[in-house]
Specification:
20% of the residues lie in helices and 28% in strands. It has helices spanning 201-214, 228-231, 252-262, 297-311, 331-334, 373-390, 411-425, 464-467, 516-519, 521-538; strands at 20-25, 30-33, 37-41, 44-49, 52-54, 59-61, 64-72, 75-83, 90-99, 103-104, 118-122, 133-137, 143-148, 156-163, 166-177, 186-197, 235-239, 271-275, 314-320, 323-325, 365-367, 394-398, 430-433, 446-448, 450-452, 455-457, 472-474, 509-512. InterPro entries: GH (IPR017853).
Length: 540
């Protein structure tokens, strides 16, 4: 974590939890409050600054801030309105001089804070925070909890910054971003609620109630986008097709054979076959989805779907929701103008190491914002056409939980529009997605689990009531197969994690590559037993 190299004498305002300061960030600089006036009216403290400072407090400039600190039972609520003529990019509320400790409230459990500090991001569909709430453990056992009372998806960062001269103390920074789609000289920061508690559970319950109301999340039982067959599903079989390099694990007939064999151990009606790499070289031709001749062509894919249905199982191919190959015909029309931007207006840089070259410079793929309508239609029309032609049961949207503060359109609302467009053309098609955070809980009922460096992170933690009341998850595509630890088409390569816990929000999942079913029958049987246990506990 990087930081300023000097102390800034920000005006401090006392609260029952510790002193608080405020920073205002534009795209150009960072500012503090200049000579604020402080008034108290009962439990409310009002701070007003008619100017700002910069250069670490050495210079004065235009802008303003109003801060309300309301003391309530067990904590305080902080509201900030900030202005600057350059436009406000984000605002930080900093709770100072806290005893250092681990952070808690994440899907992956408690995380230590190194001497260099830790930044935790929201929204993150895979790890870190699925909802904007984080706790800081204290040596006395209590927890200082900060949570945003926002009612729409906007980026938040929680930073724990140990003091350089005394690492036993730290500052707890709460940073909220303004939406890049709505640039403004004024930012009304969503309220922050700060509490000190002995037990995190009541805070989680209160926050879950807020989130479920804010996003009008339906209950699992009430969802109209959950087909009956999904309510019977207890086992997801991740049947890997073709790797990026062209190496084939299972062709279409091999996938069908795996479903048949698993169906001998559990009622096939409990099985959902998930197909990563079904369209040929995994990811390489994202943006152009169709059957692959090396895997069996149209006839082979039709045999796979019809044979799976004859057994009573279901089929879910994988589609890229926001990635396209730059060298596809038409890219300049249906994708290029919608390429993803950061709030700064620049394209984010990043790839994965598809071919073991030990670098990430693969320029053939581009991230596309689903808010760009030509891309949405280009993708949705392919999914709907293939669904009508072959009759598969679900479409999995890869990277659907991607969030970026793109000035050209909300990635979250773009994904919502994409899902609606697919359902418009195929009302009976289940639309599933990769990863999860609170604001997208109503979009896709079935999602993949997350992971942190291939270690599974499950969305029903730390509060099952937030996730499981609305959604179900299955194992991420990076889950290792039980025979070899192979992640199949996924770029991780190998993963020691091959089995998930049996919980209501987590469907048992098995990764199948090559000879998995023959090479590790005992481990395969354990996962099938998990599915049978899941059926007995949650589906009957």
């Amino acid at each position: 974590m990087q930081d300023l190299s000097y102390r800034w004498p920000h005006p401090r305002f006392d609260t029952p939890l510790g002193p608080v300061t405020v920073r205002i960030h534009t795209g150009e600089n960072v500012y503090g409050l200049d000579a604020p006036t402080v008034t108290r009216d009962g439990a409310t403290v009002e701070v007003v600054a008619d100017g700002l400072t910069w250069a670490g407090g050495q210079q004065r400039g235009p802008g303003s801030a109003k801060v309300l600190v309301v003391e309530e039972a067990g904590g305080v609520t902080v509201r900030v309105t900030a202005t600057h003529p350059d436009g406000v990019r984000c605002v930080a509320v900093v709770l100072h001089d806290q005893p250092a400790g681990d952070v808690t409230g994440l899907r992956e459990g408690d995380l230590a804070v190194p001497a260099t500090g830790r930044v935790v991001q929201y929204p993150n569909g895979w790890f870190d925070l699925a909802t904007p709430l984080l706790g800081l453990r204290r040596p006395d056992g209590d927890i200082t909890v900060a949570r945003s009372l926002d009612d729409r998806v906007r980026a938040k960062r929680f930073a724990v910054v140990p003091h350089f001269d005394d690492p036993s103390r730290c500052d707890f920074e709460l940073i909220a971003d303004a939406e890049a789609t709505r640039p403004s000289s004024t930012f009304d920061v969503p309220a922050w609620r700060l509490e000190r508690v002995a037990d995190l559970a009541p805070v989680l319950a209160a926050h879950t109630a807020h989130v479920r109301a804010a996003y009008a999340l339906p209950t699992w039982e009430e969802r109209t986008d959950v087909p009956d067959w999904l309510r019977r599903t207890a086992l997801v079989a991740s049947l890997n097709g073709m790797h990026f390099t062209g190496r084939v694990f299972l062709d279409y007939d091999g996938m069908l054979d795996a479903i048949r064999r698993l169906g001998e151990q559990i009622d096939p009606q409990r099985i959902l076959a998930y197909l990563p790499g079904w369209e040929g070289r995994y990811y390489r031709w994202y943006g152009r989805f169709d059957v692959d001749e090396r895997l069996g062509g149209a006839a082979g894919f039709r045999r796979l779907v019809e044979g799976t249905h004859a057994l009573g199982a279901r089929v879910m191919p994988m589609f890229g929701a926001n990635v396209a190959a730059r060298d596809l015909p038409g890219f300049e029309t249906w994708a290029a103008p919608g390429q993803l931007l950061n709030a700064s207006g620049h394209m984010p840089i990043g790839s994965v190491d598809w071919d073991a070259s030990r670098h990430f410079d693969h320029s053939w793929g581009a991230l596309i914002n689903p808010a760009y309508e030509p891309w949405r239609r280009h993708l949705a029309e392919q999914i709907v056409r293939l669904h009508h032609e072959y009759g598969f049961d679900a479409a999995f949207l890869d990277i659907s939980a991607m969030y970026n503060n793109d000035p050209r359109g909300s990635t979250t609302e773009g994904m919502r529009a994409l899902v609606e467009l697919i359902r418009e053309g195929s009302p009976d098609l289940l639309v599933a997605g990769e990863a999860w955070f609170d604001g997208i809980g109503g979009l896709t009922p079935l999602v993949q689990a997350g992971h942190r460096d291939t270690v599974p992170t499950l969305h029903d933690a730390p509060d099952p009531a937030l996730f499981t009341a609305t959604n179900r998850s299955f194992g991420h595509v990076c889950l290792g197969d039980p025979a070899h630890g192979s992640t199949g088409v996924h770029e991780a390569g190998y993963n020691a994690h091959w089995r998930l816990p049996v919980r209501e929000g987590v469907l048992p999942t098995i990764t199948v590559v090559d000879d998995t079913l023959d090479a590790a029958p005992e481990r395969v049987a354990l996962i099938v037993q998990d599915a049978q246990e899941y059926t007995a506990k949650y589906l009957q």
